[in-house]
Amino acid sequence: MRNLVYIYLMLVSSVLWSQELNCNVIVNAQQTGNENVQVFKTLERQLTEFVNNTQWTNKSYKNQERIDCGMVITINDYNSDRFDASIQLQSSRPVYGSVYGTPIYNFNDKDFNFQYLEFQNFVYNPNQFESNLVSVIAFHVYIMLGLDADSFAPKGGEEYFKQAQTILNYSQQDNARGWKLEDGLQTRFVLIDNMLSPTFDGFRTVMYDYHRNGLDTMSEDVKKGKQVIADALETLKVMNNKRPNSFLMRVFFDAKSDEIKDIFTGGPNVNVADLISTLTRIAPMHSSKWRDIKF
What we know:
This protein is 47% helix and 17% strand. It is α+β, with helices and mostly antiparallel strands and 295 residues long. Strands 1-2-3-4 form a four-stranded mixed beta sheet.
């Protein structure tokens, strides 16, 4: 009986404290010409354990609720413990009533220089700088958590975006690129600044309507779900009028352009002539995809 109680408590504990992410981390060092050096394999293993085993929130996640994501770190050059790299991040969330995972985040962070000694411990402190490596990883984790939460509830990701902003603020002391306004127009600074700016409130509303009121309803009524998605995308025009060619708009369409094309090609017809005009205007970099939409 005592053993049964122990097993039960262990099972309950694993459910209550299950981590939030199911993340595949890849370290690609081919460009260095030394991709088989052990330090890269160790870094990949340690980051995989760090991302997947850290408790990032105070909420409980069941195994099937963990966010599927990926991080591909491309090492461009290294010298001793200093690494010049970029990191490609992707995440998705399940769509109700289907086996489909919809892309939520697709971001290529090119400002990723860090120091790393093989087997060093990774420690995440929510209020204190530890290293640029930990800060960049944690920042993007909270962006993924925030976008995922926004897709389930109106502004549901607010606390996660605020934590990403906190990480940005304390990481500026390291003087690594990507954390400050002067570092460019497509940086972590610009991303979280846009995400929390009232100017871009419409983006976060679209994240909810597109996913919760649109995609999640398509298992019951495909045409209705498509129309909701079309209406949600139309509202981005208002945001674009306030801030044309924003970085946040680019991040959104980098993740969603292929899916949008597929949603409106085939299946029950909805009137998308105006939508295609809007998409061409606010996301011209994907105009070839919009031309492929058949209606």
